[in-house]
Write a structure and sequence with these properties.
This protein folds into 2 domains: 3-91, Elongation Factor Tu (Ef-tu), domain 3 (Beta Barrel); 102-173, Roll (SH3 type barrels), CATH 2.30.30.240. Helices cover 6% and strands 46% of the residues. It contains 2 helices and 12 strands; from the N terminus they run E-E-E-E-E-H-E-E-E-E-E-E-E-H. Strands 1-2-5-4-3-6 form a 6-stranded antiparallel β-barrel. A 6-stranded mixed beta sheet has the order 10-9-8-7-12-11.
Length: 175
């Protein structure tokens, strides 16, 4: 399994017990979706290594308490600290309506209700406090906040996202 065929689930942040249980900080708003996982891939070096889950349960807010098969003591748990967890993209449930996964919209055309075609979505910048669409407009990068009030329609069939941005936003980037 290659990393580009997977999505990031979270990071192992702490040990829970001396019997190999670990706490995973999940990257989601719906942690309960991850309670039924049977296995995950853990990035070790440059490889994704499969680990099977004996049991898991939610622990406080976005933490998942996990017991992996064959991880039965502190030294084994220590070796997995700060490692990232991944799952195959095929494990994601399909979203409908105007909800979308960041990886799925790459290559979609961005259309503004007033401006028209803005360009092609090249990615999402989620390292800022507000996630941003990164849109290529003839070689210029246009950044549009991902905000429910701006998104008019996500059309998966035609690979377009229609937005209604505040007046002047797009013109800030395009001269």
């Amino acid at each position: 399994m290659r990393k580009n065929e997977c999505f990031y689930v979270g990071t192992i942040v702490n040990k829970f017990s001396f019997k190999g249980e670990l706490l995973v900080k999940l990257d989601t708003d719906e942690p309960e979706l991850f309670l039924e996982m049977e296995s995950v891939f853990i990035e070790i070096g440059k490889n994704l290594v499969p680990f099977f889950i004996e049991r898991s349960q939610l622990h406080k807010s976005l933490l998942l308490r996990v017991k992996f098969e064959d991880v039965d003591d502190e030294p084994m748990a220590d070796s997995l600290m700060k490692r990232e967890l991944y799952m195959p993209l095929s494990a994601l449930p399909e979203l409908e309506g105007n909800k979308f996964y960041y990886h799925e919209i790459k290559g979609f055309e961005m259309i503004d209700t007033e401006y028209g075609s803005v360009g092609t979505i090249t990615g999402v910048n989620d390292t800022t406090s507000q996630a941003l669409f990164e849109v290529d407009h003839d070689g210029d990068e246009v950044l549009i906040p991902i905000h429910d009030e701006f998104i008019v329609k996500v059309d998966r069939e035609n690979k377009t996202i229609t937005v209604n941005t505040p007046e002047g936003l797009i013109e800030l980037y395009i001269s």
